From TrEMBL:
Identification of the protein by name: Amino acid transporter transmembrane domain-containing protein
UniProt-listed GO biological process terms: amino acid transport
Any single Gene Ontology cellular-component annotation: plasma membrane
Protein species of origin: Coptis chinensis
Keyword RNA-binding: no
Subcellular location: Cell membrane
Any one GO MF annotation of this record: symporter activity
Family listed: Belongs to the amino acid/polyamine transporter 2 family. Amino acid/auxin permease (AAAP) (TC 2.A.18.2) subfamily.
Amino acid sequence: MGENAVTKNQLQQHYHHQVVDVPQGGSKCFDDDGRLKRTGNVWTASAHIITAVIGSGVLSLAWAIAQLGWIAGPVMMFLFSFVIYYTSCLLAECYRTGDPVTGKRNYTYMEAVRSNLGGFKEKVCGVVQYLNLFGVAIGYTIAASISMMAIKRSNCFHESGGKNPCHLSSNPYMIMFGVTEIFFSQIPDFDQIWWLSIVAAVMSFTYSTIGLGLGIGKVLVTGQFRGSLTGISIGTVTQTQKIWRSFQALGDIAFAYSYSIILIEIQDTVKSPPSEVKTMKKATLLSVFVTTAFYMMCGCMGYAAFGDNSPGNLLTGFGFYNPYWLLDIANAAIVIHLVGAYQVYCQPLFAFIEKWAAERWPKSQFISKDIPIPIPGFRPFKLNLFRLVWRTLFVILTTIISMLLPFFNDVVGLLGALGFWPLTVYFPVEMYIAHKQIPRWSTRWLCLQTLSLACLIISIAAAAGSIAGVVLDLKVYKPFKTSY
């Protein structure tokens, strides 16, 4: 509260001529909690969600469906989309404690857990959530470098007429991505990256559409609709591999849909009235519908085009065939999208550390002082030295780990599998039960707990599949020496 009061006093001194107090502590410039008016709406919230959801995960869905087949693949995608939508609606209800319009706001996922479930579960949630965000930052660094290399390799392959194998090291590309993220990481707050989210969402549609188009094109050229009802056949892979790969496919689908870890933070950018819950439910429905339609089309057409040989990454696994310039556009769109998605996922982690540091050392000028940097034609940029140093170190660390473990996508799949149940299902269900005071052993309580248990089993299976993938990678592992 003290922090909010100081913020409000400072802002009121700056905007005193615009402030007119209204009931419940709000005003023309400030919300009911003393913070500047939130300006987000259904469209900006949807852009944030789509940016977070349609990540490079969409490109592995053809591979995932190839492991599961024409029946189980689409069915599992529909089930995951329903679970994500339902639990996201439960989570959105927990943004305010008490009354859905005037209750106390929970600014982060962890605050919502603390308000509804208590301190110990908040700590558990924090560890899982921020470890997951850290893992996603590493995964996105690797994914971006693979797409940058795909551009270089497709051009090299085209120029040499297919004679040059064009082996490249991923390290320079990871460093380039890291330098870009150091620059964008200086954007102070989550609500100031809405424009980056919209650009990233447009890019995600661009490369998904190109992937879809290339899949359709290949089906038309070959005249074959490949694939089978049960997926990759035993013989192509062993029975054990089939089981592990099917489990890993579940992890891929779960990871492709995962965004609950930043839902509360997105909801905190939304203006009211109408109530934030109504806006967020609309944004969630719109986003899940759009992403599921795209996922089904990209995953199914990729599988139809390649059958059991569907590549792990649809756009870098095309073999760099013509039109090579179209693949270049698609991979460039992936890189631009991942620049934005990295920020959408990391901003909550940045905010958590900065808030903790401000509370730990309240009198430190290094942590609290903003230095205005004049920008011609724009408002001065407020440079904070602590933010500059800590965020830069964070990006450097994620880049170094990416270079050390370039197969980290399997580890991120593992983090996705481990994070899916607690963050997407368990905590939203438990918070909703506490928030709505649903009686134990009532029909609704039993249904919610059954959903949670089923998702726990899926998460354990997906984690096991990802661990098997990591074990295989470790057999051929050479730090800093991986080339593609």
